[in-house]
Design a protein that fits this description.
Distance between the termini: 70 Å
CATH superfamily of the largest domain: Periplasmic binding protein-like II
CATH architecture of the largest domain: 3-Layer(aba) Sandwich
Structural class: alpha/beta
Number of domains: 3
Radius of gyration: 24 Å
Shape: globular
Largest sheet: 5 strands, mixed
Strand content: 15-25%
Strand order of the largest sheet: 4-3-5-12-6
Amino acid sequence: MDDWNDHRIVLAVARAGGLKGAAGMLGVDHSTVFRRLTALEGRIGLPLFERGAGGAYVPTEAGARAAAAAERMEDEALGLARDLAGLDRRLSGRLRVTCSETLAFRLLTPWISRFRARHPGIVIELAVDSRVLDLSRREADVALRVARPQENDLWGRKLANVAWAAYGATGYLAAVPPLTGPADLASHPLIGWEEGTAGVNAARWLAEVAPSAAVVYRTDSLVNQMVAARSGVGLALLPCYLGDPEPGLVRASPDPIADLSRELWIVTHRDLRNTARVRAFFDAVAHGVQADRALIDGLAARAGTPA
């Protein structure tokens, strides 16, 4: 196995557990992965995977060793790429950023516009994704996260506390008594997440304070939850930076819900912290957060919010 592409094939199949997933990782078609893997096994005279039911591919002992070696090679290559990128002092090139749907929708895009006006040589690629992308593997260069990073190889800073509140359509909330506490949510139609949603703080909290029968509409998109609440479907839990500026939508009670407050962080890999375009983007986002801090902290609710 003296061709790096052979190692990539083995590693992708081992990670995906099948040909289809591996093809997606590598950006090739299913038949290409099958043909190259079959040819590789023929050359080395050993099966690397056992073919199981439903198209599953399980590494043999040889396959597991080959995949582990490929992963070490990948780690070295990625480390070298990060080292070289960390020495880059140019305010030009590609910068891949990842954040959630709501941050991109309401906050980050205007910040990027101002950043691009100042640094036209930097091309931004924005990956809008609720998953935590792997910065060590360069799935992104910079991430905006609503939780303190746990990985030891990341470097970043806390930007703000993100406030959340319950929101509903102006007409609906004008016709009902204001909420006096979380327990009152159960007496209203609610908008929630798909059942079984994991890792969403607000989804867990809502499941604890209101019965499932109170939820009349479910979607994992917070932007869609906002639109549904504005349309009168029910009340939705939203970050204040998303709900407060939206016409036709008001808070169900004036104060943010303390239990739902999250931390907003900007992070990168430690190897990239001195890259010029990364540092410039950090500064631009910090400036944007400062300008929008009242909105993010939940202190900028519009007049007309129910008392």
